[in-house]
Each structure stands twice: as C-alpha cells, then as structure tokens.
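Continuing the batch. This is chain 6 of the set; chains 1 through 5 are on the previous pages. Same settings as before, nothing changed between runs. Recording input and output for traceability.
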Amino acid sequence: MDWLLDPTAWLIALGIFTLRVVDMSLDTLRVLFVVRGKKTLAWVLGFGQSMVFIIAIGQVLTGALKPLSVLGYAAGFATGNVVGMLIEERLAIGHTLLTIISSTRGAAIADALRASGYAVTEIAGRGKDGTVTVLHISVQRKTVNAVETVVLENDPTAFITSEDVRPRWRGFWRA
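Output for chain 6:
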C-alpha cells in the first residue's frame, strides 16, 4: 500500500491517463473519418494514435505492474472514448438525411424549409391513421438543429428520424 502515498506513482498514472485520453480520442475520430471515406485524415490520426498508444502501454508494462498505472490506463481508455465522442459532436462533419413525417402540416414544413434555403423532397404516404406527408432533406450535420427548429415550429407533432449519409453524386447541398 506504499504506492498510494508515492507522488511519483501518481504522476506516472496521471501521465498514462492523459496519454490514453489522447489515444482514444484520436481513435474515435479516426474511425469517424474511416467511415466517411477520408483516407488521408484517417491515416494521420491512425499514425498519431499508434505512437501515443505505444508510449502509454510502454509506461504501464515497464517494471512491476503498478495498480495506479493500470487504473490510469483503464480510466484514460474510458474517458478518451467520451472525449472523442464530444469532439466528434462539436465537429459535426458530414451529412445527415432527415426524414420528417407529418399528418397535417407537411406542405407548410416543406415551404418553410425551402424558404430557409433547404432542398426538400415531398412524398405522399399512408400512415396508421390515414394520409401523411413524408419529407426527405439532406443537410450538413451542423445544420440539423436549425432544420429541426423550423420543422417543430411548423408542426410540433412531426416525427423526425435521421441517418448519416455519404453524398455520392451531384444534387443540391446548402453551403
């Protein structure tokens, strides 16, 4: 139990924790760029991540297995996942396809979205309780909240789903 009072052990554990947070944050972002087909960014992040990982694991495995080092490693791994997710949310890279279903205000939602500069595709559909309007709109991820606000101002009961998309060819994308 002497290791609990050793300031050097605590500093090493903090260093390992920090390295793992960086490592896992880079890993999360690297996976994002792999999925989105950004090869150069994925390569750069993978290179940096692997260097940080080797340093971190080397610190854990040198000498006797120290409980604080293992704790720092595990806590850094877990924290790095969350930090990576928060960074990814802030970057909001990519595009999202929003599907909006409205039983009464579909045309009004479409008009409001078009007035805001978005391209909208309207489809007539049949729901459980009758006719509905299905709207498809592809937007940059960073504008999803603004689009959602326009939709809900026009129909607070609208049903909205989203999915990540990779644009393939042409079409209208609001800059």
